[in-house]
Amino acid sequence: MARLEVKNLHVSIEDKEILKGVDLIMNTGEIHAIMGPNGTGKSTLSAAIMGHPSYTVTKGEILLDGQDVLEMEVDERARAGLFLAVQYPSEIAGITNAEFMRAAINARRPEGNKIPVMEFIRKLDEKMAVLDMPEEMAERYLNEGFSGGEKKRNEILQLMMIESTFAILDEIDSGLDIDALKVVSKGVNAMRGENFGSLIITHYQRLLNYITPDVVHVMMNGIIVKTGGAELAKRLEVEGYKGIRDELGLEVVLDED
Ligand SMILES: Nc1ncnc2c1ncn2[C@@H]1O[C@H](COP(=O)(O)OP(=O)(O)OP(=O)(O)O)[C@@H](O)[C@H]1O
Ligand SMILES: [Mg+2]
Prior knowledge:
This protein is α/β, with parallel strands linked by helices. Helices cover 36% and strands 28% of the residues.
């Protein structure tokens, strides 16, 4: 079992504090969901875990099996088993999707032990079939000209190929049609198991109907204000965030600048 711990995490962007003490513990074998209003810091949390340079951790810790993640470079974090499906995947011209995934897999293997080409192709075919992706998508430049939904599906393909230990999926459901939502969920559910954990950032219960979370967190104004089971997401769908605010006596905080 592996464990990802976020302890009292404070993160600033250009001197503005966005995360104000986030605590979160995730084990492999678990699927967690984070829900919360726009601008509360969900993507900031994922960027800080992956080591995005624009996000400054001013206080707190991130530990992966007790190892200090904040001390690691971005590529080390990826090699240590962390994966982020970003909210807005970028297009990279000049490198094909397949080349990118092969390089990513090899970067995580010991020196001189590259994945054999046939094994790679077999695996790619298998995972693309699960995700109902046409073969030609593997040979196209990474995300270039991909539709919004195709990019999201491709993030899951990368995850399934790389087989990271912890995957943060930032709004993997946004912009997906109903069939694509089912397919992406099938991909994540296929990863489920004792060697995999995922933190799913979403606005909608809809995704969680397909991927049942073990734990649901609600983030507001840069902290996790409430943690519960799958029923918490269902409650949010009915009550909106007002119910939680009223219960906890929270005010709507408007940006002071
Ligand atoms: N590069 C940046 N420069 C300035 N402010 C930023 C930057 N990145 C994020 N922020 C601010 O940090 C706050 C948190 O943003 P974040 O993207 O983490 O929110 P979120 O919870 O993911 O929202 P959403 O649900 O809309 O995706 C927002 O007020 C946002 O404007
Ligand atoms: Mg976001």
